Amino acid sequence: MTKFNKNTCINEFDRSAISVEKALSMIVSTIKNSQKYEKMNLKNSLGRIAAENIVSKINIPTFKNSAMDGYAINTKNLLLKNNFCLKEVGVSYAGKPYLKKLNKDETVKVMTGAVIPKNANAVIMKEMTRTLNGLIKFPERIKAGQNVRYVGEDIKKLSTVIPKGKQINFIDLGIMSSIGIQNIKVIKKPVVAFFSTGDELTQVGKKLKEGQIYDSNRYLLHGLLSELPVEVKDMGVVKDNKKKLKEKFLKAAMDSDFIITTGGVSVGEADYVKDILDEIGRINFWKIAIKPGRPLAFGNIKNSYFFGLPGNPVSTVITFQLFVLPAIEKMLNKNIKNPLFINAITKSTINKKKGRMEYQRAKLVKLKNKYFVETTGMQGSNILTSLAMANCYIRLPANTSKIKKGDNVEVLPFSNKF
Ligand code: AMP
Ligand code: MG
Fold first, then answer.
1. How many Å lie between the centroid of ligand 2 and the Cα of residue 270?
2. Residue 185 CB: number of other CB atoms within 10 A?
3. Are 204 and 89 in contact (CB under 8 A)?
4. Which residues sit with Cβ closer than 5 angstroms to ligand 2, an ion?
5. Of 155, 192, 189, whose CA–CA distance to 175 is shortest?
6. Residues facing residue 106 across a β-bridge
7. Which residues line ligand 1 (CB under 6 A)?
8. What pLDDT, on the 0 to 100 scale, is given for residue 339?
9. Phi, psi (rounded to 5 degrees) for 253
10. Strand 183-187 vs strand 37-41: parallel, antiparallel, or unpaired?
11. pLDDT (tens digit, 9 = 90+) per residue, 142-195?
């Protein structure tokens, strides 16, 4: 056992614990798709979810044009008889077209993006031509079609360029502007309220007293939620006080689609979340066969979905990523992409007990065309620094135990934006 894999949980088996897959499928099947839409300017739609298919009303390119600065020709007119020479009869600029047809002995000078004559079938780069006796001399071997951008080769009229449910990224902004879309219908931002629970929690900026800790979960959730197309409502910290907690829950439920809390869902004496939810809502209180992040509460208070995440910061992050994110995405009608796993070779032995699926924080590197992975340090659910150093999770199935150095493991790289 390496010092980084010190395992403080004695018993990994818990017959009442449900699998990650089961919890996820129960959550996702409970959440209803949002039916709330809004129309907005294209620029503002970045990061939002398309609420309808975006269909192009035009072809892109809309006209046959040149991919180069050069000369537009019809290859049939280049013959030994004319010594592969043609007469320049005009210039076509991007935005200022030459609109006549080419006659037998003619060529037109064209700029990149400029309209080329209807009967031209190739553009020859300027650098491949020369002037000879006042005419333009072309190379002898020319392929029809070269350097021509054809109508609709990028986007065909009436084709769907953005499917409903897609999260709009910068490329989509480019595509939609290229077909002249000014406004787009997107899913309204669901409201996500969250607060931390715990007598030990202190706000940043205040002095810590003995036994107190700073509230980091609220900042983690603020960060995680800010990347999503949701309205983020930070409701602060609530003490482990049944009355105060209940008031806060009722307030949050007034105008939120989701309520997320952290802490108070284990079986400690000050863990009231379950009791309160039993009174004012409906709750499933699950032990999930996952590490980190075993306890999870999921249910509803009035019309809000409720997630009670475990208090340890790394558990908060992982349970958010695994369970809350797909729930929000379901409400957003977002098309779900399957996460991309990579097989990598572990650089060290990993100690694990059978019973729970584990997400270990690790670093993935590529060496000589092979992927290697190494854990980033202590894996306790309170150790946030090993998450900060990681660029991936190693996912270890529930039924595996010891993983030896050199074994293959499944790795989930952290998303990068593009
Ligand atoms: P609990 O689920 O309330 O029993 O908390 C489990 C652990 O997470 C305890 O060590 C708490 O002090 C810690 N914890 C709970 N909430 C937070 C928070 N907001 N920020 C940092 N640590 C927390
Ligand atoms: Mg607590």
1. 7
2. 15
3. no
4. 198, 263-264
5. 155
6. 87
7. 196, 198, 200-201, 213, 215-217, 262-266, 268, 310-313
8. 85
9. -75, -10
10. antiparallel
11. 999 999 999 999 999 999 999 999 999 999 999 999 999 999 999 999 999 999
Ligand nearest to the CA of 309: 1
Task: Point out the residues of the chain with pLDDT beneath 50.
Answer: 1-10
Both tokens of residue 200?
Answer: 């030990």
**268-290 pLDDT tens trace:** 666 788 788 889 999 888 889 99
Question: Looking at this protein, which amino acid is placed at residue 111?
Answer: M
Return the DSSP state at 126. Answer: G
Task: Retrieve residue 137's tokens.
Answer: 């001399």
Q: How far apart are CA 162 and CA 166, in angstroms?
A: 7
**What distance in Å separates the CA atoms of residue 7 and residue 190, rounded to the nearest whole number?**
39
Nearest to 83 by CA among 102, 105, 101, 103: 105
pLDDT for the residue 128: 97
Asked whether the beta carbons of 185 and 51 are under 8 A apart, the reply is yes
| DSSP-assigned letters across all residues of 212-255 | -EE--HHHHHHHHHHTSSSEEEEEEEE-S-HHHHHHHHHHHHHS
